[in-house]
Amino acid sequence: MISPTCCMKNSDSFTKGLTPSQRIEIDACTQCGECLECCPVQQVTKNPDISPPEKIRMFREFITATDSLKAKFLGAKEIDRKLLEDFTRAIFECTTCGACGQNCTVGINTQRLWPMLRKEMVRRGLGPLGPQKDMPEAIGKTGNPYGKPAEERYSPWFPEGVQVVEKAPVAYYAGCTGAYEAHPMVKGDVLVLQAIGEPFTMLPPEEEVCCGFPLFITGQHDMLEGLVKRLVEGYQARDVKTLVCSCPCCVNIMARDWPLYYGKELPFRIRHITQVVAGAFAAGRLKIERELRERIIYHDPCYLSRGVGIMEEPRDVLKNIPGIELLEFDHNRLDSRCCGAGGAARKVYHENAVAMGRLTIDEAVRKKADKLILSCPACYAKVHEAMQDHETKIPIVDIMELIAGLLGKG
């Protein structure tokens, strides 16, 4: 295979992978700096060279040098490779949480823009970074980005007594991070689904492959069409009409990008598990009798809140617990702060991720919460890791892990 750097010059166009609206967004940035205070990477690094406006400024200069009217008439400039390498590091240090876009005065959708800029650097052979490079091979061999055995996808955590049928209108997708790194989370999912009483199906462990998000977010898109079609056809063969998942990143790519890679509308709808469970509580199919006289605080995952707009359903679920007091982070819902696990940056910039996770832990403790409630497997794994060797401690519980326990199923 020919390396991209062998056939591409640093003077080649930087706009081929951008949509027309993204071209406009790059030009629209006023460098006002409103996004600096909400950027989690800025909060822990204080490095303006990797800030959102600086990344846009640099990329805009690349476009000016290679794609402007002047460049077309007089010839494109060759961009210094070190500048490209510096930009690549900056764009991959981002957690792609989208907080900068949420606070952008001109409405730039950065949660969608940053992955496309990463894709451009991958196209040029400058990215991805570190262990991110290993993910395509791992997914190709094992079906997951961790390189773990496919046959162990369910076996360590799947609870005895939970019935999975061959075909059903509802299917559950565990996802790679939940299945391999957040067992209490996915175990809670299937226990609560069983408690609802509606039959559900799952793909066999060797067929439930990666949803594609880790590849999408790191700009490595070559395998995406194959993964998506394989999964969609697998669920279609089981007569699925609703696909349920608890991982925000999975739900995000399923809802927003699977139709693009599948080539048409999906034959089923995508639902986050809190949407299903909130509906079951409202319909009377679930009821919690046990009281929990605790103060709990819920953290909004970036790709669930800003990504697909699911914010009230998790709170609706928690409000069905008798006796609880539901607290809020200072930054919640659309303004939630990244826990540090996002955008695959944690695979390369571990110290940043730990520092962000500890900010979440510290605020939960400062507000005198008895439990920190999460609903994202990457958050679950990384925030637990952040609490190791940290002076501040708090019980960390996934939302379905909590519900399953109170239902007497955990």
Protein architecture, described:
With 410 residues, the protein is of the alpha/beta class. It folds into three domains: 4-127, Alpha-helical ferredoxin (Fumarate Reductase Iron-sulfur Protein, Chain B, domain 2, Orthogonal Bundle), CATH 1.10.1060.10; 149-278, Rossmann fold; 286-406, Rossmann fold, CATH 3.40.50. 46% of the residues lie in helices and 7% in strands. It contains 21 helices and seven strands. The strands form two sheets. Strands 5-4-6-7 form a four-stranded parallel beta sheet. The chain has a three-stranded parallel beta sheet with strand order 1-2-3. Strand 6 (371-374), helix 20 and strand 7 form a beta-alpha-beta unit. The protein is globular, with a radius of gyration of 22 Å. The termini are far apart. Mean pLDDT is 94; it is low at 1-7.
Query: What is the ordering of alpha helices and beta strands?
Result: HHHHHHHHHEHHHHEHHEHEHHEHEHEH
End-to-end C-alpha gap: 50 Å
Q: Give the class from helix and strand content and strand pairing.
A: alpha/beta
Order of strands across the biggest sheet? 5-4-6-7
Question: Mind telling me which CATH architecture of the largest domain this is?
Answer: 3-Layer(aba) Sandwich
Q: Measured on Cα atoms, how large is the radius of gyration?
A: 22 Å
**What general form does the structure show?**
globular
Q: What composes the largest sheet?
A: 4 strands, parallel
Q: Helix tally?
A: 21
